[in-house]
Amino acid sequence: MGFLNDAGSRNLWIERLAVDTGNWFHVFSACLGKMMAVQTACSDQVVKGQDWNVDFEEGSIRFGAQKYPLQFIGSESTESNTWLWGWENINGFSEEILRLADHTKEVGERWRLEALTTAEFRLNDTFSGHNLSIVTCGIAGNYCYYRGSHDGGAIFVAFSGVSDRIFAPVDVQNFVSITTRCIQQFHIDHKIFTEGFLTWNNTEYEWSDQTLIAHFPQDLNITFERVDNFLRICSINSISSAS
After folding, report:
1. Which of 101, 119, 130, 213 could be stapled to 87 by a disulfide with Cβ–Cβ 3.0 to 4.6 Å?
2. What is the pTM of this model?
3. If pLDDT is split at 50, 70 and 90, which confidence band does 4 have?
């Protein structure tokens, strides 16, 4: 119960945004910035290219000599090209390692978001194990995730117990780098992505016409243009403090 209360309180940052939580495109866009920042830090500071090992009975994942408590998110099957949510629990895992998956389903039911409440469905560019894990961890508390490949596909697990540094706000340089990478690599709502990323990052911002001003120590101007009823980022520029 404590887990659900904690995770439930932490997903309010998304619900405070002007986001249709029944729309996968909106929810994924809101979660992406946070999780790209978290996953980048996790890769650099935790995984570090080390061998991994999962023990579902113990409920842990190891990277090298370090061990972390895990939650089972779900799995990809290469044979059927499908995703199966962990909460379906066809393997008979302990409920203790399914709490995050169960929470994801509960949020999906509240939001009426079909991708989070359908046990099994075909994989595609929109609904991949990575993207589903981004939303799972994005709407919860402080979790990283890992894709572990095997002969029949891949498992996706979330894990906690890492340093708070992994979830620390990013500086303006990393914000710009992650934002640029995301808008180039993913089909997302640029406005929702930017507001979601800044909100999670605890960075205040304001709008002036179609320019968002993010108040880092050095202000950042993010200018949007309207293309077919869609606001798209067209420039990102720091505002010099020099007179």
Report:
1. 101
2. 0.93
3. very low
